[in-house]
């Protein structure tokens, strides 16, 4: 879904839109109304700063973008990309672009604009882009954050998609007079501050060429550079045991390892400890209401998917069947099936590091490394060399 703000957002909202920030006293926003943005696709590029059809407007945005992005070639993730106007500028400057938008019509136009270029486009929610283990040098977002129900959560997700030293480029503003919508620069600076090593705000209202007219409201870009020190995402994995069996989920529609089996899992959010994260993920994915007493740590693994993925730390928690209720598939858009499998006869169509973790757990190990090499498959391959290395004893599998 594109949430790129029209020239006068307050005047072009649907009759009865979702209001994700109503509890904050904000005007109604069209975020959840996908049909609204589908209908807007046909005329979306009519706005000077959307279609960039005027050569002067296009040149002004190209110059700004060149100053905001790192030297090419960089991997740029354009979220809420709309019809791809900024994506096209980035590609023309030598960057590799991935665009995400919930509107299929917007994405169709973007694909047409960038046909033959180093670009890919996904129809998906910009707040939760399905890019799997990919990491980017830049996350570029224009006029999207203002319309999301939880901007802070979206910023944390986006920051997690950046390589160390990557940057967020957030074009935002505050529009309207009687009932303004948007995010003031000071508020966005406070939201981004905990994530960034450095931030800077560049005000854009004074440059009418960018907008194709004079504007008086607040428009700006916030550029946040993430720390260059090494950081890793923390995963949590539930090994739910029913006698000699474990519960596995078949991934679907996630953009990573789809079609393969994996333990119910997720990653710790900002401020969560690993046990809290496991309890939350178990509730979200398979409907279990676990307590801390239901969980025991089985194994800890540092793992890394095939390059260019970044390494992660995975905590495998064990729980017994019956704890927290009966498991069921709460996320059918991300999980095609739940099934029980014997721990001593696991199937081969599994995510490789999860299979290695379960094999290591069965062998009695507590600490493992699982580090893919270039050319390795994400899926477990029984004929390939084992990448599992025990840090507390012999190498699993010999």
From TrEMBL:
<keyword id="KW-0808">Transferase</keyword>
<keyword id="KW-0378">Hydrolase</keyword>
<feature type="domain" description="Nudix hydrolase">
    <location>
        <begin position="229"/>
        <end position="363"/>
    </location>
</feature>
<dbReference type="GO" id="GO:0008168">
    <property type="term" value="F:methyltransferase activity"/>
</dbReference>
<dbReference type="InterPro" id="IPR029063">
    <property type="entry name" value="SAM-dependent_MTases_sf"/>
</dbReference>
<keyword id="KW-0489">Methyltransferase</keyword>
<dbReference type="Pfam" id="PF00293">
    <property type="entry name" value="NUDIX"/>
</dbReference>
<feature type="region of interest" description="Disordered">
    <location>
        <begin position="1"/>
        <end position="31"/>
    </location>
</feature>
<dbReference type="Pfam" id="PF08241">
    <property type="entry name" value="Methyltransf_11"/>
</dbReference>
<keyword id="KW-0949">S-adenosyl-L-methionine</keyword>
<dbReference type="GO" id="GO:0032259">
    <property type="term" value="P:methylation"/>
</dbReference>
<dbReference type="InterPro" id="IPR015797">
    <property type="entry name" value="NUDIX_hydrolase-like_dom_sf"/>
</dbReference>
<protein>
    <submittedName>
        <fullName>Methyltransferase domain-containing protein</fullName>
    </submittedName>
</protein>
<dbReference type="InterPro" id="IPR020084">
    <property type="entry name" value="NUDIX_hydrolase_CS"/>
</dbReference>
<feature type="region of interest" description="Disordered">
    <location>
        <begin position="379"/>
        <end position="398"/>
    </location>
</feature>
<dbReference type="InterPro" id="IPR013216">
    <property type="entry name" value="Methyltransf_11"/>
</dbReference>
<dbReference type="InterPro" id="IPR000086">
    <property type="entry name" value="NUDIX_hydrolase_dom"/>
</dbReference>
């Amino acid at each position: 879904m594109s949430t790129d703000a029209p020239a006068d957002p307050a005047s072009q909202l649907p009759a009865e839109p979702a209001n994700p920030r109503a509890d904050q006293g904000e005007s109604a926003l069209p975020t959840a109304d996908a049909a609204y943005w589908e209908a807007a696709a046909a005329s979306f590029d009519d706005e000077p700063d959307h279609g960039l059809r005027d050569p002067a407007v296009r040149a002004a945005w190209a110059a700004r973008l060149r100053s905001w992005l790192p030297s090419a070639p960089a991997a740029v993730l354009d979220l809420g990309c709309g019809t791809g106007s900024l994506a096209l500028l980035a590609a023309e400057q030598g960057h590799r672009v991935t665009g995400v938008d919930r509107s299929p019509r917007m994405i169709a136009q973007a694909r047409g604009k960038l046909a033959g270029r180093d670009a890919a486009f996904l129809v998906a929610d910009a707040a939760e882009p399905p890019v799997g283990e990919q990491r980017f040098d830049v996350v570029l977002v224009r006029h999207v954050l203002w319309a999301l129900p939880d901007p802070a959560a979206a910023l944390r997700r986006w920051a997690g998609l950046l390589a160390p030293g990557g940057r967020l480029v957030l074009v935002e503003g505050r529009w309207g007079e009687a009932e303004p919508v948007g995010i003031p620069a000071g508020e966005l600076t406070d939201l981004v501050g905990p994530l960034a090593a450095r931030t800077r705000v560049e005000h854009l209202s004074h440059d009418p060429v960018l907008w194709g007219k004079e504007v008086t409201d607040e428009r700006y870009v916030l550029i946040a550079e993430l720390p260059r020190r090494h950081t890793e995402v923390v995963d949590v994995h539930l090994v739910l045991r029913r006698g000699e069996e474990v519960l596995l989920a078949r991934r679907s529609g996630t953009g990573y390892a789809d079609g393969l089996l994996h333990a119910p899992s997720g990653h710790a959010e900002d401020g969560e400890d690993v046990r809290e994260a496991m309890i939350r993920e178990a509730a979200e994915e398979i409907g279990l209401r676990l307590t801390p007493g239901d969980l025991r740590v089985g194994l800890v693994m540092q793992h890394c998917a095939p390059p260019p993925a970044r390494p992660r730390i995975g905590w495998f928690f064990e729980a017994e069947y019956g704890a927290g209720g009966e498991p069921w598939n709460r996320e059918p858009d991300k999980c095609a099936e739940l099934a029980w499998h014997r721990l001593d006869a696991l199937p081969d169509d599994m995510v490789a590091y999860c299979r290695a973790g379960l094999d290591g757990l069965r062998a009695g190990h507590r600490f493992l490394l699982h580090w893919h090499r270039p050319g390795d498959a994400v899926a477990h391959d029984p004929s390939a060399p084992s990448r599992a290395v025990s840090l507390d004893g012999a190498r699993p599998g010999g």
